[in-house]
């Protein structure tokens, strides 16, 4: 786990963040906030600069020699392909109906939160000139866009985020099944979801990614009421995905719910970390600065 | 189990409905969307099953608590009899002393006891001892003969009279308190006529109620009774002679001779032989020498062979009292004899009153009455004393005197004189005497005490004011122009202020009347003294089974003992037994004599064809339903029916269910 940038939250406000009128603004808010706090970061040793040239080695293709650099420096350098230095980051967003939930204490739904975070990642990645791929995990993998790093590509991806979480069911494991044919080796796969699926089912997909040397990060996005279950009077609940309704007594069920919930999050975290991945639980009533830091740590570890 | 107030059960149904509706229909109003039931599923399934069960348990507990509460209010009880008895019998025992006539007492009692002995849980019996004013009951309908016999032997020995006007209504009411297949009223009585006075002849009985009489077979008891024994004069002086007036009556058709023994302070004093003509009363006065001036008592015992012996004894008493004062004015006769004084104080040892000249001292609130034989002018010294005294409650007997002063005084009372046109030798006698008036009541009887024999010479013709109560008239003698509306009053009572006068329209000296020579003269004046003297109204002679009137002198009783000193009771004097009793109260000690009622001595019998069916109404009502306990006037009726009350276990169960409901329920929807 990366170290948290604690001071970023001092000047980033979740209320303000939620009221920003567009996804792009929200994303920039996150990124700028993250970056402006970065100089205070005790996180040292990370590098944001990327090498574009290297010395000529016998056997390199002559077409790769950058003659302009030679004219300036009288030294032979070859220009590296972006693909050789840049990372492809696969951003997979849970688009099931459960992501539409917004509890009484949250300022935004899990879906909006996820979208804003993904948008921030896109901006961040574009500045890093990493490739970004985007896909939506519903009943299956939807709307998948392969990784590119051009501005036009990022613009396209940003446009893809302007949609609803309209998948009736959440089958993360099934949706992630095509990933072996889509994900390149040594990539970073970030999943943004509420993970209402068992760790056992997710493990096969994660283990494959781990097998092809991908770094997997799960951002577990949950609403405060899902985490605290702080209802205090009899209510009739309707499940967002199935539409099923039940009448419950929260006081009587709270302990069991929290126990089951913590058990589930722990199982996913253990499963992921056991496979070398990272897990981060995000509350929708907090600005997701840590998410960006987490990615940064992973990125630098892989460089 | 039976319920006394079944109406309360409706409350349980009424209250349960909203509770049930509340539990069945209530749903949380708020509905929210939640991402996933993944973490709820297992808990909800388990909890909802439990909650559903919990909810139903709570509903059942609430309903049980309410139902138990409603049943408790409905007063459940175990009836005395698990199954409806075959019969329920009300045995009415005539508890008058006439039932002691030895010619049938054993028979009647035996037949009553036979009914009682036949009682068992299927044939229940309740016994009522019928007295003059109420019925004493054995309790509830019993199947235990022993209990009933014990009660009957203790309570069925009456000394008073009985009265049947309402007993059948009461018996029917008692029968309505108990369920049974057959119901019966049995009256055990002698054939004496008196108790049946004012008894209705159309008794309403339900068709399921049988009425039976047990009576002796046409046997008329021979009876002679001492109907009255009382001291006439006041016991006011040490060593005084007391006049004991006895009245004996022969209720048989034969002339009888007997002997009356007089006991005074438990010592025999005199024996008096009496001869009793058939169906007649005999009165006699016996002189008793009272040694000490203290509450004293005696009894008269008639030694004669008859069938009812209880009325052969009569108790009497004399308590020290002040002699009343009679204030007199005028009355000197030619021969110097004052007949009134003679009547009321015949000797130094036998005085009924003391006399004084009428003046300011003698006219007081304590004065018994005044005798006015001369006219008093209102403006005179005497008048200034006399008339205000009358207004303040004084009583006076005015005796006619034919002079202007008397006439003027009578005029002030509204009495005028019509001049008589009769001859000097006009003789009149009394007619139309009001024998209901206390003055004349003792004279009622076959001979009217000889009042109609008295001769009055030239009595005045007086006209009384409208508010006068004329108690006797003169006959018209030889007077002419006398009609029924204009008869001449002889004796009249006229209210004056708070007091009043009794006017005798005749002189009572020998010139005007031979009354002083007649036997009725002395008792008449003694009755006058009794009537006008409030002290003498104190009733110390009571009849058995007849509670004393609160106006009598028996107030705030603190102790009652027999004449022999045996303590009976501490704070209540209810004379249900005959005898002499020393009664202590706030006003002091005195003797009270309790005797059998004289009307019970009358052996007049019912006709031979008298039967139960002749009394019962022909249009009998349908079977009466068993009454709700709530209709009963007192709690005793419920006590009679129930063997054991069950209200408390149901109340406890209601409380327990309510507590369990509170434990299981919580502040949420359930």
Explain this structure:
Chain A has helices spanning 8-11, 14-19, 23-36, 67-73, 82-85, 110-128, 151-160, 172-175, 179-182, 199-211, 224-228, 250-274, 289-302; strands at residues 53-55, 77-79, 88-94, 131-137, 141-148, 188-193, 215-222, 235-239, 245-248, 278-283. Chain A has 303 residues and is an alpha/beta fold. Mean pLDDT of chain A is 80; it is low at 1-11 and 39-51. Chain B is built from eleven helices and 33 strands. Chain B has an eight-stranded mixed β-sheet. In chain B, a hairpin with a 2-residue loop joins strand 11 and strand 12. Chain B is elongated. Chain A binds chain B through residues 98-99, 101, 110, 170, 194, 196, 223, 226, 233-242, 244-249, 251-253, 256-257, 260-261, 264, and chain B through 27-28, 30-40, 42-44, 47-48, 51, 666, 668-670. Strand 8 (235-239) of chain A pairs parallel with strand 2 of chain B, so a sheet runs across the interface.
Keyphrases for this structure?
heterodimer; A: 303 residues; alpha/beta; six-stranded mixed beta sheet; 10 strands; 43% helix; disordered N terminus; B: 670 residues; five-stranded mixed beta sheet; 33 strands; 22% helix; 28% strand
How does the SSE layout of this entry go?
The complex is a heterodimer of chains A (303) and B (670).
Chain A: H1 8-11, H2 14-19, H3 23-36, E1 53-55, H4 67-73, E2 77-79, H5 82-85, E3 88-94, H6 110-128, E4 131-137, E5 141-148, H7 151-160, H8 172-175, H9 179-182, E6 188-193, H10 199-211, E7 215-222, H11 224-228, E8 235-239, E9 245-248, H12 250-274, E10 278-283, H13 289-302
Parallel strand pairs in A: 3-4, 3-6, 6-7, 7-10
Antiparallel strand pairs in A: 1-2, 4-5, 8-9
Chain B: E1 2-3, H1 9-25, E2 31-34, H2 38-73, E3 76-79, E4 87-94, H3 105-117, E5 123-130, E6 135-137, H4 145-155, H5 167-175, E7 182-188, E8 209-214, E9 224-231, E10 241-250, E11 256-264, E12 267-276, E13 281-289, E14 296-303, E15 313-318, E16 325-329, H6 339-344, E17 354-357, E18 367-372, H7 381-391, E19 395-399, H8 404-412, E20 416-418, E21 427-428, E22 430-431, E23 456-457, E24 461-463, E25 469-474, E26 489-496, E27 499-504, H9 521-532, E28 541-543, E29 557-562, E30 567-569, E31 579-585, E32 588-595, H10 636-641, E33 642-645, H11 647-664
Parallel strand pairs in B: 4-5, 4-7, 7-8, 16-17, 16-18, 18-19, 19-27, 28-32
Antiparallel strand pairs in B: 1-3, 3-33, 5-6, 9-10, 10-13, 11-12, 11-14, 14-15, 20-24, 21-23, 22-25, 25-26, 26-27, 29-30, 29-31, 31-32
Helix pairs in contact in B: 1-2, 2-11
């Amino acid at each position: 786990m990366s170290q948290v940038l604690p001071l970023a939250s001092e000047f980033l406000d979740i209320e303000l963040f939620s009221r920003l009128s567009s996804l792009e603004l929200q994303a920039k808010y996150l990124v700028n906030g993250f970056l402006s706090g970065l100089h205070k970061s005790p996180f040292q040793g990370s590098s944001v600069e990327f090498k574009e040239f290297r010395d000529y080695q016998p056997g390199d293709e002559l077409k790769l020699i950058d003659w302009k650099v030679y004219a300036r420096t009288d030294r032979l350098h070859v220009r590296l392909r972006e693909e050789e230095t840049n990372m492809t980051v696969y951003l997979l967003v849970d688009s099931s109906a459960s992501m539409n939930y917004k509890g009484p204490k949250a300022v935004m739904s899990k879906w909006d939160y996820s979208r804003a975070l993904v948008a921030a990642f896109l901006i961040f990645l574009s500045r890093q000139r990493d490739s970004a791929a985007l896909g939506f995990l519903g009943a299956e993998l939807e709307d998948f866009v392969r990784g590119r790093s051009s501005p036009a590509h990022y613009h396209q991806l940003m446009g893809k985020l302007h949609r609803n979480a309209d998948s009736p069911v959440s089958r993360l494991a099934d949706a992630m099944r095509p990933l072996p044919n889509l994900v390149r080796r040594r990539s970073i796969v970030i999943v943004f979801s509420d993970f209402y699926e068992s760790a056992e089912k997710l493990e096969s997909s994660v283990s494959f990614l781990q097998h092809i040397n991908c770094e997997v990060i799960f951002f577990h996005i949950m609403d405060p009421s899902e985490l605290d279950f702080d209802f205090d009077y009899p209510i009739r609940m309707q499940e967002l995905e199935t539409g099923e309704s039940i009448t419950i007594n929260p006081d009587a069920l709270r302990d069991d719910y929290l126990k089951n919930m913590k058990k589930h999050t722990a199982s996913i975290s253990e499963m992921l970390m056991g496979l070398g991945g990272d897990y981060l639980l995000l509350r929708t009533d907090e600005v997701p600065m840590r998410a960006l830091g987490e990615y940064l740590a992973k990125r630098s570890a892989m460089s | 189990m039976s319920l006394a107030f079944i109406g309360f059960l409706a409350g349980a149904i009424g209250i349960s409905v909203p509770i049930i509706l509340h539990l069945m229909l209530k749903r949380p109003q708020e509905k929210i969307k939640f991402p996933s039931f993944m973490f709820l599923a297992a808990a909800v399934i388990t909890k909802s099953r439990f909650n559903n069960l919990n909810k139903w348990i709570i509903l059942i507990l609430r309903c049980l608590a309410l139902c138990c509460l409603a049943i408790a209010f409905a007063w459940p009880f175990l009836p005395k009899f698990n199954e409806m008895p075959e019969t329920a019998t009300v045995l009415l025992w005539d508890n008058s002393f006439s039932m002691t006539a030895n010619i049938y007492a054993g028979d009647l009692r035996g037949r009553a006891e036979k009914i009682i002995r036949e009682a068992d849980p299927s044939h229940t019996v309740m016994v009522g001892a019928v007295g003059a004013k109420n019925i004493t009951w054995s309790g509830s309908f019993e199947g235990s003969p022993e209990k009933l016999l014990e009660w009957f032997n203790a309570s069925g020995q009456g000394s008073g009279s009985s009265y049947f006007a309402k007993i059948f209504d009461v018996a029917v009411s008692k029968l309505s308190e108990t369920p049974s297949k057959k119901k019966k009223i049995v009256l055990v009585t002698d054939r004496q006529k008196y108790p049946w006075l004012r008894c209705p002849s159309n008794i309403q009985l339900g068709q399921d109620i049988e009425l039976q009489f047990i009576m002796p077979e046409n046997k008329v008891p021979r009876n002679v009774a001492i109907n009255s024994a009382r001291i006439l004069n006041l016991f006011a002086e040490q060593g005084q002679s007391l006049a004991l007036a006895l009245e004996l009556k022969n209720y048989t058709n034969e002339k009888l001779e007997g002997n009356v023994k007089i006991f005074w302070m438990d010592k025999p004093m005199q024996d008096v032989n009496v001869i009793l003509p058939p169906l007649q009363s005999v009165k006699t006065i016996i002189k008793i020498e009272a040694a000490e001036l203290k509450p004293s008592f005696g009894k008269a015992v008639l030694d004669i062979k008859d069938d009812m012996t209880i009325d052969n004894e009569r108790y009497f008493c004399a308590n020290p009292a002040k002699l009343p004062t009679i204030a007199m004015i005028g009355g000197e006769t030619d021969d110097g004899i004052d007949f009134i004084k003679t009547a009321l104080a015949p000797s130094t040892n036998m005085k009924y009153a003391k006399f004084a000249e009428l003046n300011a001292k003698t006219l007081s609130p304590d004065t018994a009455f005044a005798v006015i034989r001369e006219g008093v002018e209102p403006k005179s010294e005497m008048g200034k004393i006399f008339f205000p005294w009358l207004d303040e409650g004084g009583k006076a007997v005015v005796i006619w005197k034919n002079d202007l002063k008397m006439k003027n005084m009578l005029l002030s009372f509204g009495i005028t004189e019509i001049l008589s046109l009769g001859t000097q030798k006009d003789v009149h006698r009394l007619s139309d005497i009001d024998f209901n008036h206390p003055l004349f009541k003792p004279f009622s009887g076959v001979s009217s005490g000889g009042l109609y024999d008295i001769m009055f010479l030239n009595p005045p013709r007086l006209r009384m004011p409208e508010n006068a109560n004329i108690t006797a008239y003169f006959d018209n003698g030889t007077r002419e122009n006398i009609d029924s509306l204009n008869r001449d009053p002889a004796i009249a009572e006229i209210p004056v202020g708070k007091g009043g006068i009794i006017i005798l329209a005749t002189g009572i000296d020998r010139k005007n009347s031979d009354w002083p020579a007649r036997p009725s003269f002395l008792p008449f004046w003694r009755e006058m003294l009794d009537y006008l003297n409030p002290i003498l109204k104190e009733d110390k002679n009571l009849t058995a089974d007849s509670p004393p009137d609160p106006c009598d002198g028996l107030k705030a009783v603190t102790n009652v003992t027999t004449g022999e000193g045996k303590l009976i009771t501490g704070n209540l004097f209810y004379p249900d037994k005959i005898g002499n009793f020393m009664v202590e109260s706030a006003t002091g000690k005195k003797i009270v004599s309790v005797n059998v009622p004289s009307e019970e001595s009358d052996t007049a019998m019912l006709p031979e064809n008298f039967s139960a069916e002749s009394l019962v109404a022909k249009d009998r009502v349908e079977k009466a339903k068993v009454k709700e306990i709530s209709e009963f006037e007192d709690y005793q009726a419920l006590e009679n029916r129930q063997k054991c009350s069950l209200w408390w276990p149901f109340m406890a169960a209601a409380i327990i269910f309510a507590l369990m409901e509170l434990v299981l329920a919580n502040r949420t929807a359930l």
